[in-house]
Each structure stands twice: as C-alpha cells, then as structure tokens.
Amino acid sequence: MTVQDIKLLERKFQREKAARKKAEEILEKKSLELYETNKELQYLNNTLKEAIEEKNEELNETQTKLQEIADTVEDTLFNMDHYGNIIYTNRYATHLTGYSYDELLKMNCIELIEPSMQTTMAEKLIEFTKSDDNFLYLEFQIVGKNKETTWIGQKTTKTKLPNGQYKYNAIARDISQQVEDRERLLKAKTLLNENERKYREIITNLSLGICEVDLNYNITSVDKNFCSLTEYSREELMGKHAVKLLTDGAGRSIIEQERKKRKKGVSSIYTVEIISKSKSKKTVIISGTPKFDENGDIIGSIGVHFDITDRIRDKQQIANIQDELHIFKLKYESILQRMQLGVIETSTEGIIMKANEYICQLLEYDLSDILDKSITTVLGENLKDNHHLSEVPLDQQIDNIELKIETTSGKNKNVVMSMAPFYDAELNTKGHISVLHDISDLKKLQTNLKEAKLIAESAQKAQKQFLANMSHEMRTPLNAIVGMSHLLKDTTLNTEQTELLEVLSSSTSILYSLISDILDMSKIEAGIIEVQSKPFLLKKLLDNLYKTFSIRCKEKDLNLKLEISPLVHDSLIGDELLLNQVLINLINNAIKFTDSGSVEIKVDLVKNINDTQILQFFVIDTGCGIEESIQENIFEPFQQKNNTLSTGTGLGLTITKRLLEILDSEITLTSKIGQGSTFSFEIQLAQDTTTTDVNDHVDDNISQQFDNKYHLHF
Amino acid sequence: MKGIVFTEFFEMVEEAHGYETVDKLIASCNLSTDGIYTSVGTYPSSDMFELVQKLSDQSSTSIPDLLFAFGGHLFHTFTQKYQSFFQDHTHAFDFLVTLHDHIHVEVKKLYPDAELPSFAYQRTDNHSMEMTYSSERKMSDLAHGLLHHCLGYYDHRFSIEKENIVEDGSVVLFKISIV
C-alpha cells in the first residue's frame, strides 16, 4: 500500500466520519423533533379523551331529553335493524299497538302489518335499502294486539353502519281519520261528478242556460243554451261582465245579494230581466250557486238560467182572462140578483140549481124552499092555466110565453117566461136558464092607458064640437048683424043715423075679428089644427094677396110691392091655407102700423134640397118700428106695439108664430124705431112635379075673406 | 436535493472507477460541503450539477449519457430499498401511473423539503403511453434512465422516444411503446 493509497483512505475515512457525524446530527435533531411531537401528541390525546367524555355526557343528556320528547309525542318513533327487527321504540308505540315495550322489542316490524299488505311493504323496504334515497313514506294498516286495525303513515330514514348494514329510523302516525276522510271525500267526489254529469244532462235537456263567473262577475264559462238565450256567441260572452246582460236595477241588486250569499256560501234564486243582443227583454229565473276550488275557497258562481218569458206572458194572459171572468161573474151575479127579473137555473132534469132573490120575492118563497125541486113542480103549483109549460119539452128554447100564476099568498101575477139551454165546454147541454118577468104592473098600466085614451079622445071630440058649435053659433048672429047693417045702409038715413050705423058697423067688424082671433087661438091651443099637404100655385096665392091688400094700401096712400125670385118654383105642395093666413096676418099688421111709405112682400129661394125648396118670405114695412125692449115679447099673447087693445085682440102675431111653429118654421123680426120692421120666416115646400090644373079653391077661399082676414076651417 | 442522490452518485462512480476518481472529483469541485453528504440530508442542486459537469470532463462521457447511466443505477438502488412499491405490479405502466400520485406523495410525507419532478400521463392501452416530465432542474435524461430500467425490470420489450416540449428541457415528452 502506497502512501498515496493510505492518504486516499484517510480522506475517505475522514469524509465518512464527517458524513456520519452530520447524519447523527440530523438524526438527533429529528429524534428531538419526534420527541417534542410525541409529547404534544400525548397531550392532545389526553385532552381528546376529556373532550370525548364531556361530549359523551352531553350526548347522554341529549339522548335522555330526546327520549322524553320521543315518549311524549303522539307519534310512534322506532328504530329497526338491517332486518326490520325493532330495536327501539317510544312509549306511544305501546299505546298504538297494544303490545308492551318488551313484546315490541322481540318483533319484526313486518309482523305488525296487516297480513295482506305484508309482502308489498317488505318489498318496498328492501327496495328502499338498495336505493340511494334516504327517505321513504308508506301508508299501511297495522293489526294491534287486540286485533284492531289502524291506518299508519310511516316516514323512514336509513343510516349506514360501519359494518355496511343499515339501521332504520321511523316515525309512524295514526292516519285512520285522514284515510277515512280521504275515502269519504273520494266517494263524495265520485258522487258529485256523477251528479254533476246527471244534472248537466238534465239542464241541457231542460234548456237551462249555464253561465259561470269569477269573483268579479266576469264570465268564465257558458253553455250552448246560455248563448241562445242571450243571442251572443261564446266568444262574445267570455270575459264579459255578466251584470251587463241584466237591466240596470236588477244587476245592482243581484251583486248586492250575491255578495252576501257568497259569504255564507249558499245558493240563491232571483227572477230578473236580461237584455239579449237584439235588445229584447227576457224574464229569467237565475239560480246562483257559489263555485269552490279544491281547497273549499269560493272562486266564483255558477248561474243556472231558466227563461220564463213565455210562461209569464201566458200566465199574465191567463190571469187577465181570469180577472175578466171574475169581474164578469161578479157583474153577472150582481145583475142577476138585483135586476127586476126572476132567474132560475135548472139542471137537464129540470131541477132548480140556482135562483135569484127576485124570483123568491115574486113567488113568495124562501130560496131553500125551491132549491133542488123540479121547476115544473115549483111553477106548476102556482099555475092556473099551466098548459104552456107542461107541453114544452125542457131541452128546447122557449121564447116569451105569458103565464098567469098565483103566489103563495094568493096574489095573481102575470109573468113572461123565456127559457134557454146552456152548455159546457164540450157543447153538451148542462141545464137551462129561465127568466121570468113580472108584467102584472104593465098589464095594469096597459088597461089604465086604454081607459085614459078613450077619455082623451072623447074630450077632444067634445072640444072640437064645442069650437065648431061656437064658430057657427057666434058667427050666425054676427053675420046677421053685419047683413042687417048693410041693409040698413041702403035705407034713407039722416046724418046722425048714418054716423051711428058707421059706429055699429065698425064695432061689429072689431067684434068679428076678436071672435075669430080667439077661436083661432083656441084651436091652436087645443092642438087640433092638422097640416095639409096639397099642391098649390104660390104665385097665384101671392097675386091674390096683392090684389086684396092693394085697395087698403091705396086708402092709406101706401105703396104695396110684391117681389118673387125667379128661382122659386111655382107649383108646390104644402099647406096653402096656413101659409096664406100667416102672410095675411103679417101684411095686415104691416099696413096697420105704417102711415107712409111702403109695404113689401118678398120671396127668395134659400136652397134646393132634392125635390124641395127652402123659401124665405119677407114682409117689410116702413112704419113706426118696434122698440127693442118689446121685440122679445111681441109674439107673446096680448102684447101689442103700443100696449093698447084698441086696434085688435093682440093675438095676431102670437097666432102667426104658433102657426109657423106648426109648419116647422120660426118667425124672426128686425126692426128700428122710426124706420120700419121686417118679419121673415123660412119654410120648406115640396115641388109639385106632376102637372096639375090650377086649383081654384085657394082663390075661392081668399075671396071669401072677410075684412081681409082668413079664418081657419076644420 | 436529497442527500441520497449524492451518496448514490458517489457510490456509482466508486463502483465504476474506484474511490480515487471520487476523491479526484471532489477535490476538483468547489462543493458547498467539501464532499461530505449523508443520505438523510438535503443539499444544493448546484453541487450535483458541478459534480456531473466535472465527471463528464474527466471521463470524456457526455452529461446525458452520464445522467442516463445514473438513472439506471438509481433505479437498481430503488428496487433494492423500496421493494414493496414494485412488487404489487406486473406491468410497467401500472407502476408508472402510481409514481406521481402515490410514490411522490409518500416521499413528500417523509421529506417535506424534497423537490420532485411532476409527471402527466396519457395511457392509450397496455402497449402505448405518453408521459410528460416537468422540472426546473431539467434532468430528463436521469428520468429517461429510470424509465428505461423500469421497463426492463418488468421484462417488457419496448421503445422510448424522447422529445423536448420546451427547448431548455424543462418539459419533456416520453412516448413509450411496448411490443
């Protein structure tokens, strides 16, 4: 070995030694660190132990508390091992199952389950074990120690134990009441659905309109019937405010009522008018029912609508007819009861069913005496000569037969009886109505009238006779006086005698006139003047008058005028005599009261009516005139212009007026003091279309006038 | 850098060339410990780089070859010392994938100050796998040597392609194919 080798080895050794020392240093340092760490670890270990003990104590306390809670809750809490064996349960479990705590701890949870459900529940538990879920809810029935079954709702959770097995924690609750409620609810729902389906069908068939609204009365559903009721389409109705379909007042009132009803959740019925799309009003019965959701909260209403417009109209019409009938019946009955006619209603067999008061009074019976008796018996007892009634078949109509009857008290009565059948709705004879009219008083009156007529007739005859006699008896001596006076004039008389004769003559003339007027008046008053209707010639009549009065006018230096309208027909038919006398009286009067001027006779045509002419006659004078105050009374008897009787009886104008009245005419007067008077009248005369010869008798009559006066003849 | 790397490095050199070369190498370097290393200590990496550089100069062997050989030596040492890590596997890939997530984690527990390379794996099947090496110390050749001997240890017939992902060798991809 060389020195070099030795040195090399030496260096190696030195290095190894240094490395060993370094390593020792490091290891020593590490050991120290390890020691420190160990010490720390030991300390930690000790405190951990304490902490664990403390936590254990806490845990025990908590467990005790939990146990207490578990025992007091009304749920069954229990734990099961991996195989479903009960390893813990709270006190309530014993209450629920009837088994003691010790008994339960020997049981498997499946044993408690109702046998038919055991398999299913076991399968579900196994499935739960395998699944990732940590929560299982099951509902099943358990059978208690006393064999009573209880519905259980059980929540189960699982905990995995270090050995890979599971431990189950379960909370079981008695849900019998809930299950029962649920089943009842289900049954009720099924029934409800069934009913709803049934009612909907009924409603559809009944043409009931259905409309559903929400809480704000906006339409949410309608059926076909409701659409046809309102005449709107479904689209138009959806969302529409239902109240807008009603008349204003009805809408407000319904909302008010519906609000109250909804609060109570009860149905309600309204009768309202709705307005359809075509604005026609319809009367509708609405049955409103609150609508509920699943939670029982009201979410709106369902309205069932029944259109009763037609029914109401029909009902109204029937009511009106019934009212009318009732009024008619009342009226009819009241008339029947009060009228002075006896009314008897009989059945087809002639039995009296009804009778009014009057018939009872007439026959002097009480109503109860005659009801239900045969009419022939009742009337027959009272009939003397009753052959009429027995001969008449009762199913026929009898018109006004006259019967003589004797009342219960023996009074004789004359009655007129009518009988007519009445019918039921099928036009079968239901009975007869007989009407009896008591004509006893009428009969008496008739007799009295006949007597009165005879008396009147004989009285009239006597009066006529008297007047005829009077005119003859008075005129004969007067005519003798007049005739003698004329004869006396022809003798030789001295002046004094002549003067006396003049007085006598004029007095006679006045007397004659007076008698004539009085007789005329008497005749008029007696009403025995008869209007003649015979053909005559008007022109001739007037010409004669003109001739007659022209002499007297000449004496008084008066101008007499006659003017006839050319339109006036000449041949006429009427009472020439009366017309003549009226004109004579008026002309006479005019001449009498006119001292100068003229007297004018004028005839105008007023108008033609078919074959008749209405003519107006005027007698116009220029005399003294009549004061207005007197004009009204001038036609009354014994009224004269100057209130003196010196110039006449004062009956002239009265007679004229009365004569014109007989001719259906009226006299009118217009007059002014100092200027004259105009008397006029209108008279209707028929035209004589037949060509006849001029009748001369008028002329003759007029020629026979005495002192220009015409006298009536009978 | 862990002391074992230095002690095994000197061991390899002594085995191959005798202590004289080790002594010479230590003397030629300016080492922070004067050449005194224990396997339980931790030393600057720069000491190792200097030793490798000087050895390469003195032995006329390239640094990659030197490191590749050192990988083989180290793997042999590991199989001796840490038998249990290897015996559980029959396929090299099965062992390799435990390296980063398992073995290095255990190493870190024992030596919290150890600075270890990281590996990412892409294993297609039992015949091909890609491993990505990442380390600031850029000693992928050492890793190459380790890989090579590992595959040999499991009796595979294989080929390894090495490719620099980053130019400086800090990230390197190994494509391993087993026939």
Task: Describe this structure as you would to a colleague.
Chain A has 714 residues and is an alpha+beta fold. Chain A has 21 helices and 22 strands. Chain A folds into five domains: 1-72; 73-174, PAS domain (Beta-Lactamase, 2-Layer Sandwich), CATH 3.30.450; 206-307, Beta-Lactamase (2-Layer Sandwich); 339-438, Beta-Lactamase (2-Layer Sandwich), CATH 3.30.450.20; 530-703, Histidine kinase-like ATPase, C-terminal domain (Heat Shock Protein 90), CATH 3.30.565.10. In chain A, strands 16, 17, 18, 19, 20, 21 and 22 form a seven-stranded mixed sheet that branches. Chain A has a five-stranded antiparallel sheet with strand order 2-1-5-4-3, sandwiched between helices. In chain A, a hairpin with a 3-residue loop joins strand 21 and strand 22. Chain A starts with a helix and ends in an 11-residue tail after the last helix. Residues 692-714 of chain A have low confidence and may be disordered. Chain B is an alpha+beta fold and 179 residues long. Chain B folds into two domains: 3-61; 70-178, H-NOX domain, CATH 3.90.1520. Helices cover 54% and strands 16% of the residues of chain B. A four-stranded antiparallel sheet of chain B has the order 1-2-4-3, covered by helices on one side. In chain B, a hairpin with a 6-residue loop joins strand 3 and strand 4. In chain B, 27% of the residues are buried. Classes of the chains: A alpha+beta (714), B alpha+beta (179). Chain A binds chain B through residues 8, 11-12, 15, 18-20, 22-23, 26-27, 30, and chain B through 19-20, 23, 26, 34-41.
